[in-house]
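Demo today. Your pick:
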Amino acid sequence: MTQDEKLKLFFDAAMEEAGQRNSDSVSEFKKSLESSYDEHVINMRESAEAKFKVGRDSLIRESNSEISKRQIELRREFAAKQEEYRKNIFDRVAAKLMNYKNTPDYVSMLKAHIKKAEEYAGDDIMTVYVDSTDEGLIKELSASCDVEVAVCDKNIMGGIRAEIPAKNVLIDESFTSKLEDAGRNFNF
């Protein structure tokens, strides 16, 4: 074997080994890059999912907060509307009661309430009070029921209040007290 042949053989062997090393190195680098890429993709996915969850949770909280605020507003509006309707109803009832006071049935009702109060009082002294707008009925009521009838110092809108001092009793059949009772017990 000549020197040129030996050199060529050595050169070919060195080149083959260098090519193999280069191929192994590129293959290793390629695997390393693929592994890094896969890890990066997984990390980015996890990061995106975490950001998505945080964003979604934040939106849900904001939405719930807005819903709660709106519910409170609606409850306030509902309560205000209920109060408006309630006032309207009681104003209409009060107007009807004022119209009722101009009927003969009203005088009959007053006499009936006075008779019931007389039955309760028995032989005890009793004073019956009427509203100042009913002052014109005092003589008629006193004569027909044989009791002392006076004008009440409070606005009772109509009806009577009977006071029996011996029994320490006040019988309140006034329109004002009836409307107040109805107002306390009124529900839509």
